[in-house]
């Protein structure tokens, strides 16, 4: 009989095992991949952005929106400091860039090795290449049976740390939702998040490879839902980049609920439409003999400037002195409100996280123990919480994993 079986050797499972091990619990991590922490190696482009010093609660969301206020019971201002301290104790000092926190070595591999060593040092065991198929409580309710292809493990406590369903090549294949259901839990709809968005073709594919800074507003049936500022990347299929990743959860939810989803791009954020038009009028005089495309290319990458000119009903050869005030106003409006209809998100395989999962109201957030099945703990991305880019999702995984580990 094991003290604790942890299903999943990812961020949350490892954090849980270390804290439980430090308190004298003997844990067994069952991991279906050939090594633990496979996803961690890929995080932060191999550098692992594991926390965020500027973390704000507004960066976290639930698909079951009413539960969002509960996130503050877990994530607090001190969470980043506490995560960094936890990493330091495992031998991973950190560096910070604009709030984003990385291992000092900027090597995700170093972080995985350090966490594995810290866990093994507590006396914990790991079995890789071991896929859990089923979890059940014995009839007396005193222990759990965790079934794998090779054998059935019995344990007093079980931790579901299987992750969500994003990027299944790293192991999180969604099987945790079935285990949660076996423990009497429900799940919200699960949708890809932190991913690129597919656009209705409207000449956007000619912009493939272009990058531009701007404010992106997501509208659902014409209503404002969210906005973010940053670099927009135009791709073969639509749009990508951190700003798009951060909005993708809203697009996924909107499309799931059969709404029309539009992104409105303001490519001249620092000017109002009126200020931009006034500036264009000035430049019409000073650059009178030049094509207006030249002038607009001083504001935007040339292919995007051309796109906005054409969208305003002008040709890309139009010369400055030929343009009327009205035409310049139209260009300003086009640059400030390019509308892109979103048809879909990229697949789960290309998404970084899952929006949705086991709703927070089914969990005791002080301990991460299930309110449905005593002795069962749920942590990490399996739960219905998703964060924006910048270390938020790993912080959620560490924090919930450690919480469970401390209370096991
Ligand atoms: C490419 C990429 C880059 C990312 N970069 C960042 C970043 O820089 N910063 C950030 O904060 N977040 C980042 N994320 C998100 C972050 O990695 C995840 O939110 C986080 O790893 C979730 O932790 P977890 O422990 O809940 O799940 P996971 O890390 O997914 O771990 C779950 C583990 O459970 C195992 N498992 C699942 N089912 C079974 C089963 N049936 N039997 C046995 N084992 C099982 C899996 O193999 C896996 O190892 C990134 C994600 C991706 C895909």
In short:
The chain has helices at residues 11-22, 38-42, 79-89, 108-121, 175-182, 242-256, 273-286, 292-296, 302-311, 325-336, 392-407; strands spanning 2-7, 27-30, 51-52, 60-61, 94-97, 100-103, 125-127, 132-137, 144-148, 152-160, 191-193, 197-199, 211-220, 223-234, 238-240, 261-266, 338-345, 353-355, 363-364, 369-370, 376-378, 386-387. It has 408 residues and is an alpha+beta fold.
Mind explaining what this structure looks like?
With about 400 residues, the protein is of the alpha+beta class. It folds into 2 domains: about 1-190 and about 355-405, FAD/NAD(P)-binding domain (3-Layer(bba) Sandwich); about 195-345, no CATH class. It has helices at about 10-20, 40, 80-90, 110-120, 175-180, 240-255, 275-285, 290-295, 300-310, 325-335, 390-405, and strands at about 1-5, 25-30, 50, 60, 95, 100-105, 125, 130-135, 145-150, 150-160, 190-195, 195-200, 210-220, 225-235, 240, 260-265, 340-345, 355, 365, 370, 375-380, 385. The strands form 6 sheets. Strands 1, 2, 7, 8, 9, 10 and 21 form a 7-stranded mixed β-sheet that branches. The protein has a 6-stranded antiparallel beta barrel with strand order 12-15-14-13-16-17. A 3-stranded antiparallel β-sheet has the order 3-6-5. A hairpin with a 2-residue loop joins strand 5 (about 95) and strand 6. Helix 1 runs parallel beside helix 4 (about 110-120), helix 1 runs parallel beside helix 11 (about 390-405) and helix 7 crosses helix 10 (about 325-335). About 50% of the residues are buried. The mean pLDDT is about 95. Flavin-adenine dinucleotide binds near residues 161 and 172.
């Amino acid at each position: 009989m094991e003290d604790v079986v942890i299903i999943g050797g990812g961020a949350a499972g490892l954090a849980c095992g270390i804290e439980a091990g430090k308190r004298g619990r003997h844990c067994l991590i069952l991991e279906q991949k050939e090594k633990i922490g496979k996803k961690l190696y890929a995080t932060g482009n191999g550098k692992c952005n594991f926390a965020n010093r500027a973390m704000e609660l507004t960066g976290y969301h639930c698909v079951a929106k009413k539960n969002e206020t509960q996130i503050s019971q877990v994530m607090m201002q001190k969470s980043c400091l506490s995560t960094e301290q936890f990493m330091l104790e495992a031998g991973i000092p950190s560096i910070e860039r604009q709030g984003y926190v990385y291992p000092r070595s900027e090597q995700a591999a170093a972080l995985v090795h350090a966490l594995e060593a810290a866990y093994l040092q507590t006396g914990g065991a790991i079995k890789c290449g071991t896929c859990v198929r089923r979890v059940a409580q014995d009839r007396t309710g005193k222990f759990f049976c965790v079934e794998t292809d090779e054998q059935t493990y019995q344990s007093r406590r079980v931790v579901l740390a299987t992750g969500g369903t994003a990027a299944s090549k790293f192991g999180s294949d969604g099987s945790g939702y079935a285990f949660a259901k076996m423990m009497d839990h429900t799940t919200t709809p699960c949708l890809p998040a932190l991913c690129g968005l597919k656009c209705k073709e409207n000449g956007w594919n000619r912009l493939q490879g272009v990058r531009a800074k701007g404010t992106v507003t997501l509208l659902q049936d014409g209503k404002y839902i969210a906005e973010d500022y940053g670099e927009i990347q135009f791709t073969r299929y639509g749009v990508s980049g951190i700003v798009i990743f951060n909005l993708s959860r809203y697009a996924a939810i909107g499309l799931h609920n059969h709404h029309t989803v539009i992104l409105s791009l303001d490519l001249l954020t620092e000017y109002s439409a009126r200020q931009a038009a006034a500036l264009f009028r000035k430049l019409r005089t000073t650059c009178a003999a030049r094509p207006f495309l030249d002038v607009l290319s001083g504001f935007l990458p040339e292919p995007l400037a051309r796109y906005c000119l054409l969208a305003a009903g002008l040709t890309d050869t139009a010369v400055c002195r030929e343009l009327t005030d009205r035409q310049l106003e139209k260009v300003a409006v086009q640059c400030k409100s390019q509308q892109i209809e979103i048809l879909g998100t990229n697949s789960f395989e290309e998404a970084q996280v899952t929006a949705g999962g086991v709703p927070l109201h089914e969990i005791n957030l002080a301990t991460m123990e299930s309110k449905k099945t005593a002795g069962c703990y749920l942590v990490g991305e399996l739960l219905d919480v998703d964060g924006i880019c910048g270390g938020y999702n790993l912080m959620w995984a560490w924090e919930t994993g450690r919480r469970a580990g401390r209370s096991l």
